[in-house]
Amino acid sequence: MVPLPIRLRRTPNRKEVIKVIKDLQSLLFPNYFKHSEGSENVLSQTELLLNIYNRLVEQIKGACEFNMTAMTCSAEKICDEFISQLPRVKTLLLKDIEAIYEGDPAAKCHEEVLICYPGFYAISIYRIAHVLYTLKVPLIPRIMTEFAHEKTGVDIHAGATIGEYFCIDHGTGIVIGETTTIGNRVKIYQGVTLGAKSFELDENGNPVKDIKRHPDIGNNVVIYANATILGGNTKIGDNCVIGGNTWLTRSVESGSVVYYNEKSGTV
């Protein structure tokens, strides 16, 4: 077996990226998240933002150096654009909080969602990482979402496109693939997989990259626990309900209710 080549180039520092995540959460929701330096070194919002900017620039430089095809990128320009999108990120997260609060009778207040819910924690990191992904920053978005995966059991690829008022209930075991699209007001329960049906191979037998592999989920869809929906050509229409333990590799028309029939073993 030929060993894989190790690229001896600069890479982003995972610990620093995680600190940036925590500081961004603190910047967006200062009363509910503590910044990475701890309460003994309280920073003003302006100081915290400047601190985030400087450290993120350095990590982006490392990511661009690692990915030789991205060496022409300007870390400062990317970071400027990223910072400019933070108000929109907060607006989306406030809508996600509302969706989770409205979608879970156990939630007694919006603050409880912010403080306690692993689904919201994962979504908050995904929203941040997705901006960097759309700005074509290498590695860092994946570091961020894999940290969320590690902390919550919710695996959302930074490349997935997710609309407004996204509700994750319970969350553990959820997998959302890179080319998934999810509409507005979608609710997903634990164990749901939005994944690839199979991998197209090139002439050398290697998986083909950068193709549509994951499903499209419409607006106002509910997907119950442990449902599996696979394939880049699979589309779930608006206002559908997908029952628990359902396995789908075909599209479903809008307004449908799909469930697993235990007697026949079909949906």
Description:
α1 (14-28) crosses α7, α4 runs antiparallel to α6 and α6 runs antiparallel to α7 (140-152). This protein starts with 13 loop residues before the first helix and ends in a 9-residue tail after the last strand. The model has no long low-confidence stretch (mean pLDDT 91). The relative contact order is 0.09. It has a five-stranded parallel β-sheet. The chain has helices at residues 14-28, 45-66, 75-84, 86-103, 110-116, 118-134, 140-152, and strands at residues 155-156, 161-162, 167-169, 175-176, 181-182, 187-189, 193-195, 216-217, 222-223, 228-230, 235-236, 241-242, 247-248, 257-258. It is α/β, with parallel strands linked by helices and 267 residues long. It has two domains: 9-154, serine acetyltransferase, domain 1 (Orthogonal Bundle), CATH 1.10.3130.10; 173-267, Hexapeptide repeat proteins (UDP N-Acetylglucosamine Acyltransferase, domain 1), CATH 2.160.10.
Name given to the CATH homologous superfamily of the largest domain: serine acetyltransferase, domain 1
Q: What's the N-to-C terminus distance?
A: 44 Å
User: What is the CATH class name of the largest domain?
Assistant: Mainly Alpha
Number of strands: 14
Extract low-pLDDT stretches: none
Beta-strand percentage range: 5-15%
Report mean pLDDT, rounded to a whole number: 91
Helical residue percent? Answer: 25-40%
Number of domains: 2
Q: Which sequence of SSEs, written as H and E, runs from N to C?
A: HHHHHHHEEEEEEEEEEEEEE
Secondary structural class: alpha/beta
Strand order of the main beta sheet, please?
A: 1-4-7-10-13
CATH topology of the largest domain: serine acetyltransferase, domain 1
Annotated CATH architecture of the largest domain: Orthogonal Bundle
Please state the CA-atom Rg, rounded to the nearest Å: 20 Å
**Spatial shape:** globular
